[in-house]
Amino acid sequence: MTIAYYARLNKIAIWNSFMIVFAFWKGSIWKIILDEVGTWYLIYLCIAGIYRFYLSAEQQEIFSSFIRDLQDKHNVCVPMQFMLGYFIGMVGERWGESFENVSYIEKVALSVAAFIPGVVNIHNRRNIIRYMVLSQILGIRQISALVKKRFPNNDALVTAGLLHETERKKLEKVPCAVYAESFVPIIWALKILQKYEEAEERTFKADNPREEFGGTGVYDTVYAEITEFHEKTATLSTYDTTPIPLAYSQIVIFSVRLYFFICLFTRQHLDMDDTYLELVFSLFPLLTIMQFIFMVGCMKVSSVLINPMGEDDDNYECNYVFDRNLFVGMEIVGWVKENPAKTHPDLDGRNIIDIDNRPYYPKYGDKFDGKNKAYVGSYKHVPFPHKAMSKLPLDAQQVQGKKKRVGTCLSCNLTLKEPNTSAEEPEAAIVASPGAVVLHVQPQ
């Protein structure tokens, strides 16, 4: 999941921000690139040692002549900045679009709760929410490793209470399940809406036999929210099946690797008559290592973002989204004043009021899968002392704003003064400087 660090940056301070940001390990640039930097530097030292201690003078001359010719053409042959910059921009844009298409249940749940009211319809509302979450899981399960590990088959969905046994049989009989099966729960949800609309029409005609039923508007309103919810899930699947062209990813990764492979030779210090201090600096190419961290780090970050449904530290936590959608959706549609537990149980026989909406996760020994984490606000677990509160006076700064101080208006050559509170002289808020127009404010 994405690493949250905003709570540590609540104040702008150069030194503190630098230390706090670079102190993270999980999801940091150090975790991504440290092993590659170490490997590259060891190979660099090995080449330097072979050149200095194992080659003869004639071989050193041939090697240094070849390296000097290569240094002149190195930066020209590999256009690193252009290719890497364009690749990062493309990957970042698709990552943002993928994030915008992660669906949340509130709009659907609120429309269902508002347009299908009453205790009698609570089981219909709950089933619509369950079908929406089920559709989301079926769609994202095909593109997310974490979701696939949690729900490897439909039996896991039955165990988690998201799918009934009879529904599972219907789902597995769908002919086009190989291509897409997430639309099936959507159809089930829309059938509930159709039955509700038909029941409302029968009630209306029974009370008003001579009038024509014009519809309640429930179907159109809730239908729009349901289809929008499913459309986002389908878009996520499209991003997975139609990724950034493989050839472009290959050429960017290959060019970065090739560039720094050549740097192993072109950044060698070839002067054998250098001093001890110069030798020390030549054996630790600081600027080249910094360039390696910047360029290879950007490439590695792009490789992480190119698949936001993976298992890296900065990938989306889809399992938490499912848990949140199920719990929040059930709470919204089940929030009624009456107690329906005695007469209207859910379709699976569970008590509506005391239902336990805690999510199910696979268990490995005595522990649950630790890769699935919850998204929480940056300050959710930050303790702050409670202080007594009271109403502000009307002249407080939070109400009236900050009062202006005495100053000079440079554009009009006017000097601002505090208003005169004396009753003897007329109040003048602005007094002109020499040579300027005089403005007076007369009292009423």
Explained architecture:
The chain is an all-alpha fold. The protein has three domains: 11-100 and 245-305, no CATH class; 106-220 and 317-368, no CATH class; 402-444, no CATH class. It has helices at residues 14-22, 29-53, 57-77, 80-100, 106-115, 122-140, 145-150, 154-159, 165-172, 183-207, 218-241, 246-266, 276-283, 286-305, 318-333, 397-400, and strands at residues 363-364, 367-368, 408-409, 414-416, 430-432. The strands form two sheets. A three-stranded antiparallel beta sheet has the order 3-4-5, with no helix packed on it. Helix 2 packs across helix 12 (246-266), helix 4 (80-100) packs parallel to helix 14 (286-305) and helix 12 runs antiparallel to helix 14. The chain is elongated and about 110 Å long.
| Alpha carbon gyration radius | 34 Å
Biggest sheet layout: 3 strands, antiparallel
The number of distinct helices, counting runs of at least 4 residues, comes to 16
Structural class: mainly alpha
Total count of domains? 3
Which keywords apply here?
ion transport; 3 domains; 16 helices; 5 strands; chloride; chloride channel activity; two-stranded antiparallel sheet; disordered C terminus; mainly alpha
